[in-house]
Amino acid sequence: MLEIIKAIIFGIVEGITEWLPISSTGHMIILDDFIKLDCSEEFMEMFLVVIQLGAILAVVWLFWNKIFPFQFKDRQKPVIEQEKMVLWCKIIVACIPAAVVGILFDDVFEALFYHALPVAIALIVFGIAFILIERGNESRRPRIREMEDIDFKTALIIGMFQLIAAVFPGTSRSGATIVGALLVGVSRTAASEFTFCLAIPVMFGASLLKILKFGLSFTGMEAAILIVGMLVAFIVSVFVIRFLMDYIKRHDFQVFGWYRIILGMVVILFNICGIIHV
């Protein structure tokens, strides 16, 4: 029962931090040092990635009408909505840089940068970036206001920022892509929606690779921990995504920038004091 409670806590943290641009990695590093699951190191490595599937299913559920290109009318053959197919092509283009680099060098980057100091630096640097970009945008109007208006060139640029997150843990995938989108003139709403959509193939791909690497030989307790973590991440993600989309209609991202800076300093302090050991 204690391990299930721990899985619930991990699911809550994942559901909150995956979509807010504050780095789920930074929070998981701290959480993992305070709440240890009674499992193997290999399972924990897989769990921290596959739990994201619960979060991504929340995006699929909430954005179904925006992303599903097949419509059935009067029980006839499905009608393919061209605009949504084009959107998926843009999503694929944006995912290519991170997918290629991630498949080839994931283990290398994890060994080099999955440590407290690199994560803390990434938290602080992108926190500062959020503040500076938002202050610079105060007097400018975005040139792209709707997600559907993002062109292929802009999608590729956003994808290059996603690549930064793939290399440097603590950057935050959502944080990096939102920063990139804001820099090239995409509105906060469109940037957030496109970021959510980008997560679908990225997280499904990353989870599949981790499951294949770990294998399907779960114990009963491991399966329970994984299912509970994913379910909680799904439920929490639904509320967090709705909150974020409502929040950015009236506010900018500066508060998340300040939060990232503070969290980065906390990670550094905890590491110096020996509280965290990653």
Mean pLDDT: 89
How much β-strand is present in the residues? Answer: under 5%
Helix content: over 70%
The gross shape turns out to be globular
Unreliable spans are none
| Rg, Å, rounded | 19 Å
Order of helices and strands: HHHHHEEHHHHHHH
Would you tell me the structural class of the helices and strands? mainly alpha
Give the tally of structural domains. 1
Q: Total helix count? A: 12
End-to-end distance: 27 Å
Strand order of the largest sheet: 1-2
Q: Characterize the largest beta sheet: strand count, sense, and whether it forms a barrel.
A: 2 strands, antiparallel
Q: Got a strand count?
A: 2
Pfam families: BacA
Protein name: Undecaprenyl-diphosphatase
Transmembrane segments: 46-64, 85-105, 111-133, 154-171, 191-212, 224-245, 257-276
EC number: 3.6.1.27
Write out key terms for the chains shown:
mainly alpha, 278 residues, globular, single chain, 12 helices
Structure write-up:
This protein is mainly alpha-helical and 278 residues long. The protein has one domain (2-272). It has 12 helices and 2 strands; from the N terminus they run αααααββααααααα. The protein has helices spanning 2-17, 24-34, 41-50, 52-62, 64-67, 82-113, 116-136, 152-167, 173-183, 188-214, 220-247, 254-272, and strands spanning 70-71, 79-80. The chain has a two-stranded antiparallel ribbon with strand order 1-2. Helix 1 (2-17) packs parallel to helix 11 (220-247). It is globular and about 50 Å long. The mean pLDDT is 89.
